[in-house]
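Lab meeting, item 3. Inverse folding demo.
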């Protein structure tokens, strides 16, 4: 293997005396890492010096939070582990939001954080922070390396833990003296992690019980989460849904696991899910949950969730089973293997009445909006994006109404196509996520459908996109409000819009100042042309859509209500 400077890189397996920094680089290469998101600082300089010569792509964000979101989106879109390297103290502290985002959405990341010299730890040394203490609740695993001899093994374990079982972020804290200390390294040995056991193959009896329940069911619903995407099980899901003839609804993170153009698709369920998905869940006699965790945004009031249903739950994480909702038939293991086995045992059933009922709900309550309006409607922007990109783009999002419109009005047809912060709901995720996705998929069209205030949080990363010539597209659905907050204030706080609108810059001008293309759209007639122009850009491009300021997201299950108690259905009915 050759480095940037032409020097050959020894595989770590070859026994020789090396510095800690060299061991880190060699172990990363051994793990197949070719791209990293890194921000420097004093205690990681020995490592940065070694990385200078390494055959890896280096992306420098403008803020460590941005770097972590980039690594996260890189992982979500490529299926590989995202790698981020930052300095101690403020660098590591800036990672926490990114780590929590990845933790909540089960995304594999290995974060290497520099630490002050071992002898200074606990002394309030310059740029010292208790990184393992701070990141413990937001990581799947974390540790500090105290001996250079432990370094290679710890990094290998970090990658293994991040990417196996239910994936998640791992932090490895490395004091600077360990980076310069030397030792002899041996090749990888078999992983031995007492207490970390992963069950991949599902229990055969349980699978047969599940198959019987499916065969006997008259009103089944498949409820699919992001776990199906991380398990690369979309093909197996399609096969099961087709063979047994099952309607499929997904969570926000599950979008893309099942082609939304198929007639069996019920689209997204939950607080802002489709009426037909929510009604179907409330009336089903069998709920087959796969790689999903019964989050409160999905279930609404737990007591009345899917009240007539027997529940099958297929998940890699045993702690998810019966956590929120009682499960009748649990199957723990890898969704890909289990779905394939289950498919062998199920039979086709027509379920005419059930599909007729679903078709009626679909007809009565489709996602809709006022198409006659003279203003720029956000839903119209998303629909037009979908039309012009033929449902093929990778979409990232901010958080709020923009995220829900991106979920409702773009049609996702393949896995790893939507990259959105579901569990933590992190505003500011969209732009750095678009950068990470574009790095992973250089030939893809990557579009960040963002909110104005979400974009405000990390817009500095536009400079990163410009520096690395990443032709990402940003569509700001600019309502001049923290729209989702305003919607709640309108509905539940008597329209008292307390601090939910801050002043915004002129985004097109900001984009141009940073070296990107900037476009402003304030007329409905210009939406289509502007999107066409945006899609033709080779440079990063920001389009500021000045949308209808007080548009709301419908339907809505108010917090604490049952899934079938949706507001806004009358509005949807009127707008068809
Ligand atoms: C970091 C962070 N802070 C606060 C919130 C709470 N929050 C959720 S949605 C929202 C408003 C988002 O505004 P904007 O990005 O403009 O999106 P819109 O709803 O207008 O589409 C806020 C403040 C959050 N999700 N994340
Ligand atoms: Mg907004």
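The presenter then showed the designed sequence:
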């Amino acid at each position: 293997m050759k480095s940037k400077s032409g020097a050959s890189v020894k595989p770590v397996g070859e026994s020789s005396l090396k510095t800690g920094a060299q061991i880190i680089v060699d172990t990363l290469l051994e793990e197949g890492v070719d791209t990293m998101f890194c921000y420097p600082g004093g205690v990681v300089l020995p490592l940065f010096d070694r990385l200078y010569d390494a055959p890896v792509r280096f992306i420098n964000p403008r803020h460590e939070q941005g770097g972590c979101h980039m690594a996260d989106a890189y992982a979500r879109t490529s299926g590989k582990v995202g790698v981020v390297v930052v300095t101690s103290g403020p660098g590591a502290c800036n990672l926490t939001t990114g780590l929590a985002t990845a933790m909540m959405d089960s995304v594999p990341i290995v974060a290497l954080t520099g630490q002050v010299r071992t002898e200074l730890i606990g002394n309030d040394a310059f740029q010292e922070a208790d990184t393992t203490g701070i990141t413990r609740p937001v990581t799947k695993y974390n540790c500090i390396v105290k001996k250079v001899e432990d370094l290679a093994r710890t990094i290998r374990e970090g990658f293994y833990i991040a990417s196996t079982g239910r994936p998640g972020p791992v932090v490895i804290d490395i004091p600077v003296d360990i980076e310069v200390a030397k030792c002899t390294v041996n090749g990888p040995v078999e992983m031995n992690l007492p207490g970390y056991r992963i069950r991949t193959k599902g229990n055969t009896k349980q699978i047969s019980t599940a198959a019987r329940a499916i065969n006997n069911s008259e009103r089944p619903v498949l409820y699919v989460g992001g776990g199906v995407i991380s398990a690369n099980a979309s093909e197996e899901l399609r096969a099961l849904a087709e063979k047994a003839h099952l309607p499929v609804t997904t969570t926000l993170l599950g979008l893309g696991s099942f082609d939304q153009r198929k007639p069996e698709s019920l689209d997204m369920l939950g607080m802002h899910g489709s009426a037909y998905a929510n009604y179907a869940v409330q009336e089903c006699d069998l709920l087959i949950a796969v790689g999903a965790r019964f989050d409160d945004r999905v279930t609404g009031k737990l007591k009345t969730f899917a009240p007539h249903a027997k529940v099958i739950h297929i998940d890699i994480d045993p702690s998810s089973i019966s956590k929120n909702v009682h499960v009748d038939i649990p199957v723990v293991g890898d969704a890909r293997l289990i779905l394939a086995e289950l498919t062998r045992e199920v039979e086709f059933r027509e379920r005419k009445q059930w599909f007729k009922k679903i078709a009626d709900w679909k007809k009565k309550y489709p996602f809709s909006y006022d198409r006659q309006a003279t203003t720029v409607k956000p839903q119209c922007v998303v629909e037009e994006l979908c039309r012009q990109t033929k449902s093929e783009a990778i979409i990232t999002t901010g958080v709020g109404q923009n995220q829900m419109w991106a979920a409702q009005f773009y049609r996702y047809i393949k896995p790893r196509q939507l990259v959105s912060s579901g569990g933590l709901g992190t505003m500011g995720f969209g732009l750095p996520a678009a950068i990470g996705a574009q790095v992973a998929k250089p030939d893809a069209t990557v579009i960040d459908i963002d909110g104005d205030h979400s974009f405000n949080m990390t817009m500095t990363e536009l400079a990163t996109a410009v520096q690395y010539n990443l032709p990402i597209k940003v569509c700001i659905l600019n309502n001049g409000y923290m729209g989702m907050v305003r919607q709640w204030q309108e509905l539940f706080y008597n329209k008292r819009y307390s601090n939910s609108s801050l002043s915004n810059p002129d985004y097109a001008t900001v984009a141009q100042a940073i070296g990107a293309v900037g476009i402003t759209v304030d007329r409905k007639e210009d939406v289509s042309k502007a999107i066409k122009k945006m899609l033709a850009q080779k440079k990063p491009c920001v389009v500021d859509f000045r949308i209808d300021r007080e548009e709301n997201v419908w339907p809505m299950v108010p917090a604490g209500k049952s899934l079938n108690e949706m507001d806004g259905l009358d509005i949807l009915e009127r707008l068809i």
